[in-house]
Amino acid sequence: MTKKTFLGAMTVVTAVALTGTALVASNMGFKLNYQIAQANFPVVYGRDSGTTALALPDNRQTGLNDAKALMDDIGFPAVLEVNKFLKSSSGLVTYTGRKGGPLAFPLVAGEGYRIKVQTTVNYIVVGSDDPSLSTTFFQANAPIVDGRDSGTTDFAYNYHQTAANAKQLMDDIGFPAVLEVNKFLKSSSGLITYTGRKGGPLAFALVPGEGYRIKVQTTVNYIPSHY
Asked: Per-domain residue ranges for the chain?
């Protein structure tokens, strides 16, 4: 079970948020206190690396536009890396904010990120959902070489989404299209995989503030069901 702790209940507020240059007023706003936990020492074989799968809101707070801004907002001294999953290679783009490192990549609504910290941070997430936002889960480009381009996407679970567990999320996206819903485990730096198939593991609960890795066999344009 993940050691990340959901510290605060969502507060439904009337929020005004800026994403890019567009002003968005919403009654689906929230403020969330989410713990991004450091590694428990000693770290063995690279496990328990202090990494968290983070879901940002569709409409982020003003100025939160790229990996540098996110690192600064969480707290630069605490954050080692902000990582973005690349479907084309099944690898990561890593932003460290350090001299000589890669440039900061832009943040995209609906996309989850992995944050690695060296000290625990209680991160205040502020924003709102966009009930009309569509996220596209792309199938793999065939042929798949060395397991790359696997049809996998890191998804930012919506804060007011009706799907409460992996099964409900799979059904909401479209069961025939979805192969897996994956949850990142900080304790092992591994994944819990839900397939929805007979004999597989039980569906795990979904947590606001947490991102999930979705694998599909056919391309789907997904608009989450909201309450």
From this structure: 13-128, 135-222
